[in-house]
Amino acid sequence: MKPNSEAKILREYLKIMDDPDGNVRKFRRYAQIAMTLAMLFLFFCLSDNIHHIESVYYIAVLGFLAGTAFGLGIWFIQAVTQTKLLVAHMSKESIASRIEEIIG
Known about the structure:
By secondary structure, the chain is mainly α.
């Protein structure tokens, strides 16, 4: 990994560790929104109103959007879990010292 990329990622970890509860709430809210959108898109695809759409490509697009929103929802749920683990097992001092080593 490039040193600048590693330093950038570590700085983001420090931001998360500064306010872990706020980040957990934010990721959980994003997950709820994504899952709700996925269910709405899927419901519309399976509803009786779909035959009013003129183009058949809209069904494929709505299916793709439903799958994408569902995947993002799962990803944000995983981010909630990882944030709790990250904060429990890493220290700010070790991250800051690693950034200093990289930057030099």
